[in-house]
Specification:
about 350 residues; alpha/beta; Rossmann fold; five-stranded parallel sheet; 15 helices; 13 strands; elongated
């Protein structure tokens, strides 16, 4: 893969750019004048032109292209925007003020095969409603359909969604390895770090003591997931913490799993009161119970997305480290297929 190109003879500016590129996980090709840069002009994913070389670059009349930036360390230079137009740059970034923006631009440029994945959150209206099972099955069904899928465990006290999948011993990073990181995470680095099973990558918790996920860490993971995956499924805790509200704010759709009994519906209504403060599209997945479906749905006051059937031998299946069968002829498999068809953009 080609590297971003920097054209500058300003050594102080170059030092800044090399440091910023390292923060974005990128290495640079460097030219101190326009002539050595010419072979890289159409190949580099991004070009950063130092203000000191703007006039010289403009004099060569380089071909028009996107992803060209003018970088300066002088916010008071009255000629900055004239230089920007002259070199065909799309924007001016001033250091150190725009350092964060430049990290993001460089990281974006280095992403292979960028995607625009959808995020679906799943939350239980009551403990034991089956939200984690639905989240896992939805992710498994999507990955079986060759959608690149990221399953994110956002419940620190949920026991680990990797254990639900029967892969608690799988090698790879967990939340504890990621929360200390600040800023952006490359989608390719995230995929390489996580346990993966075919087209499914899983982010769960370590066993033992767990710390809450900082909202910034959740934001970085979900942004990387959006860029690197077709679908991100987030299994949320019922008691919303800052990381959970961050996930909700980025969700295309949130599925609330509600048992159709009196306590189940009352509990789900309380959960929905908090959930709807942070996201717009919330739909119900109803579990069978003593209440009539129409009565249960009218009490919830949100649209129905389907019914989650009971699995008579579910407990024994999960304790063996297995999940229910998800074939297209099974009720649960058909539900997941229907949800994916309704919630994801047509390809």
């Amino acid at each position: 893969m080609h590297r971003p190109l920097v054209i500058t003879e300003d050594h102080a500016l170059l030092d800044d750019l090399v440091r910023i590129a390292a923060a974005a996980g990128a290495q640079l090709d460097v030219a101190h004048a326009p002539a050595p840069a010419r072979p890289f002009w159409n190949l580099a994913p991004l070009i950063a032109i130092g203000a000191d070389q703007a006039e010289a670059v403009a004099a060569t009349s380089p071909p028009s292209r996107d992803q060209v930036l003018l970088v300066t360390r002088d916010p008071d230079d009255p000629d900055t925007w004239r230089k920007c137009v002259a070199v065909g740059a799309q924007t001016v970034l001033t250091l150190p003020t725009d350092e964060r923006r430049l990290v993001d631009r460089l990281a974006d440029a280095m992403e292979p095969d960028p995607r625009s994945g959808s995020t679906i959150c799943v939350i239980g209206g009551r403990g034991g409603a089956g939200a984690s099972v639905l989240a896992a099955c939805l992710a498994l069904r999507a990955s079986a359909d060759h959608l690149r899928t990221l399953l994110v465990d956002a419940d620190p006290l949920g026991g680990g969604i990797d254990a639900l999948l029967g892969h608690e011993e799988a090698k790879g990073s967990r939340w504890g390895d990621l929360v200390a990181r600040e800023g952006r995470i490359s989608s390719s680095a995230l995929q390489a770090a996580l346990p993966a099973f075919g087209d499914l990558a899983v982010l769960s918790f370590h066993r033992g003591d767990v710390a809450p996920i900082p909202a910034q860490a959740m934001r970085s993971v979900l942004e990387a997931g959006r860029r690197g995956f077709d679908l991100v499924v987030v299994d949320l805790p019922r008691h919303l913490d800052p990381a959970a509200t961050e996930a909700l704010s980025r969700a295309k759709t949130t599925l609330a799993v509600a048992p159709a009994d009196v306590r189940g519906i009352l509990s789900t209504v309380q959960v929905l009161t908090e959930v709807r403060k942070h996201t717009l599209d919330v739909r119900a997945i109803l579990r069978p119970g003593v209440l009539d479906d129409d009565l249960a749905m009218s009490s919830l006051g949100i649209p129905s997305a389907g019914n989650l059937p009971d699995q008579p031998r579910l407990t024994a299946t999960l304790n063996r480290g297995e999940l229910p069968r998800l074939g297209p002829r099974t009720v649960l498999g058909a539900l997941c297929t229907s949800l994916l068809r309704d919630l994801l953009p047509a390809t």
